[in-house]
Q: What sequence folds into this?
């Protein structure tokens, strides 16, 4: 049986006079008494059905009973719409189907929400995700995602990379988030970990002689969910022997330029600019700067040495932003709240009114030279942060993004990509009182950084790089350590004992000692890529079946309890938490 011989969105003027059968969902129904109009939708688009009682008396009875999202089959003749009824916004807007036969294939109860309804509660949307996915926006997102992944695969394979799957169940690896654990029924008390990334496996593949590996990999990280974070994610994973950073950069630029061109019709100018981590931190207070607007951070540290204003004089770093608006006291109070949320002790300011007069409680403490250094255009405000450099960057970086949104400084039509390079290799964790890896513990220090490991680990830079698009981290990678002795030295700096090194990474250290070539690569989050590509504010709307912010699937009810018998079989006893 043929359910249809043409897609709803495929009907065109060349089909006028022909008889065709369509099938799909009733998107809308308009009952005009005698005539009933139904917009029939399938994956190809919409076609207007016209049910006329004089032409199809049986069909009109069916048409009167239709509700939105009923599944229908309609047969009839394609006719031209009247000139005044042509819809130029639809590919099928010049034609309609005059129905001869109409059948309800599946009924639908009253909907929990309408597909065109705005502001639907997220939990309700996820509870009825199969219905939510019928929305035009989500249909667009998932189809665009599929096209993007296809383009990525094509370019990887053209460049000689081999698609190899790696295990989903393996050993825990230090990636910065908690592991999801899988208990072993055959080995009580032992657990697999779901991969946070295929990091070690891809290194082993290159050591095995697969000089160019890639995978569209599923990864799992047990971390708190945010607008741009998932617990189940997908990433493009790339690794190569004898790595060439220029080759990798050009490959990713070429691949993603093709994604934007084929999915969005946008030509991205390349090559993309590059910026060191230190420059990005200094100018934008972020390692993922949004270059769609200016408002760069400026340095006032030298200008305030010896200042009579103690907050400035005693601070290791004094930096500031010049906002293109003379803020009121109420607006300044709100900006101070933003700054304190990010760790600032306060927010000093100088407001320049429309006549260029300075207004601030700190001006009386500033010398003429300082006032001249901070002088800004009339109708603007200078906002200061004074503290340790890392704190100043964090506060002003967040404030810059806030002002970019609030003052509508961001060019929403722009596409700004750049590479961030020369990351610090290590950072000091005050709580754990030890060094931690900025990227991961397998990242290679650059030659100068390697020489600093014994005397100044915090000054060592890594052979690491990130790709940023419109202020979102789209990819990150590094060259890896291929010498066992250097890898052990990094483990030592990270306070991983020799015993733990052997227990957790013995197989990797053994592999590195058996002819491991220099290697490196890059990984790119497909979900975050889609956030930027589809201009979606929430990463959960780039995947088909997401969890909510609490990590729960309202549709299926997962995670759900399991029976005592299954727990016993796995050798697990649940601990009862105190009330």
A:
């Amino acid at each position: 049986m043929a359910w249809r011989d043409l897609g709803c969105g495929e009907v065109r003027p060349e089909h006028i006079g022909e008889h065709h059968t369509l099938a799909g969902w009733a998107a809308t129904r308009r009952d005009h008494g005698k005539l009933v109009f139904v917009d029939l939708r399938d994956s190809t688009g919409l076609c207007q059905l016209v049910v006329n009682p004089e032409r199809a008396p049986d069909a009109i009875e069916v048409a009167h009973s239709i509700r939105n999202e009923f599944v229908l089959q309609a047969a009839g003749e394609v006719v031209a719409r009247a000139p005044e009824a042509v819809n130029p916004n639809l590919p099928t807007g010049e034609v309609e189907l005059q129905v001869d036969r109409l059948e309800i294939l599946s009924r639908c109860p009253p909907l929990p929400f309408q597909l065109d309804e705005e502001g639907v509660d997220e939990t309700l949307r996820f509870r009825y995700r199969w219905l939510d996915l019928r929305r035009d926006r989500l249909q667009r997102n998932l189809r665009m995602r599929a096209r993007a992944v296809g383009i990525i695969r094509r370019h990887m394979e053209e460049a000689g990379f081999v698609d190899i799957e790696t295990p989903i169940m393996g050993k825990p690896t230090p990636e910065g988030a908690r592991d999801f654990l899988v208990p072993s029924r055959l080995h009580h008390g032992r657990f697999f970990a779901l991969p946070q990334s295929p990091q070690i496996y891809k290194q082993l593949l290159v050591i095995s002689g697969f000089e160019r590996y890639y995978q569209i990999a599923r990864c799992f990280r047990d971390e708190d969910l945010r607008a741009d974070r998932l617990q189940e994610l997908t990433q493009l994973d790339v690794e190569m022997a004898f790595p060439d950073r220029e080759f990798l950069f050009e490959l990713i630029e070429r691949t993603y330029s093709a994604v934007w061109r084929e999915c969005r019709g946008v030509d991205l100018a390349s090559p993309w600019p590059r910026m060191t981590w230190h420059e990005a931190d200094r100018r934008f207070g972020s390692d993922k700067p949004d270059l769609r607007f200016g408002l760069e951070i400026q340095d006032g540290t030298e200008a305030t040495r010896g200042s009579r204003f103690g907050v400035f004089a005693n601070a290791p770093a004094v930096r500031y932003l010049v906002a293109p608006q003379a803020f009121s006291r109420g607006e300044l109070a709100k900006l101070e709240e933003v700054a304190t949320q990010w760790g600032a002790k306060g927010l000093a300011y100088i407001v320049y009114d429309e006549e260029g007069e300075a207004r601030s409680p700190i001006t009386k403490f500033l010398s003429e030279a300082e006032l001249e250094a901070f002088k800004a255009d009339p109708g603007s405000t200078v906002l200061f942060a004074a503290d340790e450099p890392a704190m100043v960057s964090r506060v002003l970086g967040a404030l810059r993004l806030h002002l970019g949104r609030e003052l509508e400084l961001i060019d929403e039509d722009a596409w700004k990509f750049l590479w961030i390079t020369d990351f610090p290799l290590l950072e000091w964790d005050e709580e754990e009182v030890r060094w931690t890896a900025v990227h991961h513990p397998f990242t290679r220090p650059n030659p100068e950084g390697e020489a600093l490991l014994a005397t100044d680990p915090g000054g060592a830079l890594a052979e690491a790089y990130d790709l940023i698009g419109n202020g979102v981290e789209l990819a990150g990678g590094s060259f890896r350590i291929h010498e066992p002795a250097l890898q052990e030295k990094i483990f030592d700096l990270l306070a991983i004992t020799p015993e733990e090194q052997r227990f957790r990474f013995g197989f990797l250290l053994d592999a590195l000692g058996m002819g491991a070539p220099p290697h490196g690569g890059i990984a790119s989050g497909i979900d975050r890529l889609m956030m930027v590509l589809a201009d979606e504010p929430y990463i959960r709307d780039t995947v088909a079946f997401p969890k909510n912010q609490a990590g729960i699937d309202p549709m299926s009810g997962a995670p759900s309890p399991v029976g005592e018998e299954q727990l016993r079989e796995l050798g697990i006893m649940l601990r009862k938490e105190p009330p």
